[in-house]
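Teaching assistant's notes for section 4

Start the section by putting this record on the projector. Ask students to predict, before seeing the second block, whether RNase III domain-containing protein will look compact or extended. Collect guesses on the board.
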Amino acid sequence: MSTPAQVVKLRAILATALPGLQLPALPAVSNTIWNKHASFVGAQHHAFQRPVDSQDNDYERLEHVGDALLGSGVTLLIHQQYPRLVVGARTLIRSALVENITLDQLAARYKMPDRILAAAAQRHTIQNNANVRASVFEAYLGALHEEAGPGALEQFIRGIYLPLVPKLVDALRDMQTTSSISLSSAVPLASANCVGLLGEWAVARGSHGRAVTYGPPEREGCDHAPLWFVTCSVKSKPGALYPTELFTGEGSTVAAAKQE
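Reveal the predicted structure now:
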């Protein structure tokens, strides 16, 4: 699925903010798995679960836990700081904060790539792989939670993200303010036909050059509870601040996603 245009713009904000960000100290953990790539000892594959008398030998399962904990921690932080923020804005901000591009930069700030254990022949490539570096950061979070508990993890996450959330909220607010699209209506937006309003906007008098197009719907999730994503491309009149903007909606049906 393509990345929403707003997230791409938020990435630029983070790329500027992260190098000079005052980060909290990295708490020490005794776990020796969080930075160990599968190539270091040879990947082991089990059909359902590892045997009782065996131990994890790479960061994969810790990464899985850390990924979930980071997502929930950042979601809660956004909710506490900006309780009136709509869900769509929260989702965009969280996506930018926890995506691999951001985690790779955080891993680099903490010099984690140098600590990645991998097979000698692959070490340089693996240590410079952005996705691996992001995974190692998440695995570290899983190890911290396992050893020091949820309180220590929350404190660490808040120390990193508290200064970043306001920057992204302000940037997203500016995008909304300067957007060339206005869906103002006498009816509440929740009950408005957004697809119809966009269509009217595109063909209104003096609207030469405007266009609204929808990309093919994309589906995620299981059969009984699918989640649909639809990207809408809005082309404004030549000379507008943002000549073309992309928006992504999600919903339980394609129609609902277009309304998002």
